[in-house]
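Title: Comparing notes on inverse folding

I've been comparing how different people in this forum approach sequence design from structure. To keep things fair, I'm posting one structure and asking everyone to reply with a full sequence. Here's the target:
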């Protein structure tokens, strides 16, 4: 006769429950920063890239007013957005931690089954498996950490403080704008435009390298997207000028 499946598993075997929990943990740990990349350095590089594109838009539209208020407002928005999304991610993490803590307190036998299924899948068996499970079950704090990392697939060390990411995004906007202004002062709009292209390429290459992706395709696609965006704003602006 097959073992009765605990209600805690909702009709699933222990390993199936672990797989479902791992999917939930993947959602909780996913970056939801849209265009921003994980980490303050990635956020800074991405913010500098976006600032370069926005200033090119400004140039294409031929707006005569100073760009300083626009850049400062965008820096505040970019930093605030990064912080808010970071807090939302941490809130999801804290909710999962409390859910897992509650399960350990109220469904300890089922948690032991999940843990045994996990370590069986890793190749543990026999007395070694039993001893390992007993050691982990003896300490609630250690058990909680193991279940978060093994069952939900969370890497708790990878969660960066939202304010650190906010500072990175804010700094990226300001530094990118300062570089562009310096080049405009030395070489005019042409130098600023070329520098914008360079910022997009360098930022794309850096962020691709940080993610261990191939830098060249990232640079090409980022430049192509930027070029297409500039073409759209240029021709749409011309179309509106002709129709008004």
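Reply #1:
Here's my take.
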């Amino acid at each position: 006769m097959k073992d009765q499946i605990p209600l805690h598993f909702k009709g699933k075997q222990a390993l199936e429950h672990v797989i479902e929990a791992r999917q939930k943990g993947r959602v909780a740990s996913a970056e939801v920063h849209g265009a921003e990349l994980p980490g303050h350095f990635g956020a800074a590089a991405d913010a500098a890239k976006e600032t370069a594109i926005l200033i090119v838009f400004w140039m294409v539209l031929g707006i005569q007013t100073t760009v300083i208020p626009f850049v400062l407002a965008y820096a505040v928005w970019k930093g605030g957005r990064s912080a808010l999304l970071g807090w939302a991610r941490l809130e999801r993490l804290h909710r999962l931690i409390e859910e897992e803590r509650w399960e350990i307190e109220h469904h300890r036998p089922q948690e032991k089954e999940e843990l045994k299924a996990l370590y069986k899948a890793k190749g543990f068996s026999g007395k070694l498996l039993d001893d390992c499970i007993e050691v982990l079950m003896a300490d609630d704090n250690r058990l909680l950490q193991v279940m978060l990392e093994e069952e939900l697939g969370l890497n708790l060390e990878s969660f960066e403080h939202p304010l650190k990411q906010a500072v990175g995004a804010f700094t990226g906007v300001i530094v990118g704008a300062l570089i562009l202004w310096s080049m405009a002062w030395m070489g005019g709009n042409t130098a600023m435009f070329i520098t914008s292209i360079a910022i997009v390429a360098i930022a794309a290459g850096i962020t691709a390298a940080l993610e261990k992706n191939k830098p060249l395709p990232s640079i090409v696609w980022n430049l192509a997207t930027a070029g297409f965006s500039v073409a759209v704003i240029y021709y749409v602006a011309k179309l509106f000028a002709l129709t008004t």
